[in-house]
Specification:
It contains 10 helices and 9 strands. It is an alpha/beta fold.
Length: 291
């Protein structure tokens, strides 16, 4: 089966980083493809026997973006399997990235013609969010606000290599002091659990390290929390699947995103191993990239 990735999202959210990763992974990549050519392009690559294809489509494609959700649905109904990745970031991060890159927003000239004046960057971002809202609601979103390029590459790599399960289940840890990730579907707060941070020997470690895992597993409250979250997911996951949802991200938060949330996310992934879940640790360094 052909592996097709459609990459879209907010300008400045990291699509260039993701597309370069896919190109390095052996995908035939096309950037800024007009929507009207999408079906024809995919059909051509299928005829040529190309197994991996990645297409980036966003607001740079003038006048056709509204047609993209319907086009994707139509192609899926015809048997074309898509993995759509929507990249997003918060407004503060986007403004900072534009300031650092000194690039203009792709909607600047278009909105200037419409309104007879040069729009602010925030106006461009707000308009783009409105235009892309239908896609964001339907597909898998990665919030890149607090991600390094290495983390984004690792997450995209894991996602495109995931087995084609009815729902791609992701367990993500995060730090509440850095904010709740915008791509979370379900959020669970584990700050009430015993905190290894106050043990000097455990403080430098993470929830993936055996001494921390052993320390946390001795508390009945930790086991009860993991069991309750697992029970909730087990009960409601079938309904998410009936809703034709392709992705479900379960975010687990603690204060620093280093010990408790990491441990609980890892434990939940172990309990749902049959679903081949993805694991993300937002406030942990990414694994080393293979050459």
């Amino acid at each position: 089966m052909q592996n097709i990735v459609l990459l879209t999202g907010i300008s400045g959210s990291g699509k260039s980083v993701a597309l370069r990763l896919l190109e390095d992974a052996g995908y035939v990549c096309v950037d800024n493809l007009p929507v009207r050519f999408l079906q024809e392009f995919i059909s051509t690559t299928q005829q040529q026997g190309i197994e991996r294809v990645a297409v980036a489509i966003d607001v740079r494609t003038v006048g056709e973006l509204d047609e993209l959700p319907a086009t994707v649905q139509e192609m899926r109904a015809q048997g074309t399997a898509f993995r759509v990745i929507f990249l997003d970031a918060n407004d503060h991060t986007l403004r900072q990235r534009y300031s650092e890159s000194r690039r203009r927003h792709p909607l600047t000239d278009r909105l200037a013609l419409q309104h007879g004046r040069t729009p602010s960057l925030q106006e461009c971002i707000d308009t783009e969010r409105e235009m892309l809202a239908p896609l964001r609601e339907q597909e898998h979103t990665i919030d890149t606000s607090d991600l390094t390029p290495g983390q984004l590459r690792a997450w995209v790599r894991d996602l495109v290599q995931a087995d084609r399960a009815p729902v791609v289940l992701t367990f993500a840890s995060f730090a509440y002091k850095r904010g709740v990730p915008g791509d979370a579907d379900l959020v669970f707060d584990v700050r009430c659990l015993p905190n290894p941070h106050y043990d000097q020997a455990l403080r430098p470690l993470t929830g993936r390290d055996e001494p921390v895992a052993k320390w946390l597993s001795q508390f009945g409250s930790v086991e009860a929390m993991v069991t309750d979250i697992a029970g909730y997911i087990e009960r409601w996951l079938p309904l998410y699947m009936q809703d034709t949802r392709n992705y479900l991200t379960v975010a687990i938060g603690c204060t620093g995103g280093k010990h408790r949330s990491v441990y609980v996310a890892e434990e939940l992934a172990r309990r749902f191993a049959d679903h081949a879940p993805l694991i993300r640790h937002r406030n942990q360094p990414p694994p080393p990239e293979r050459p």
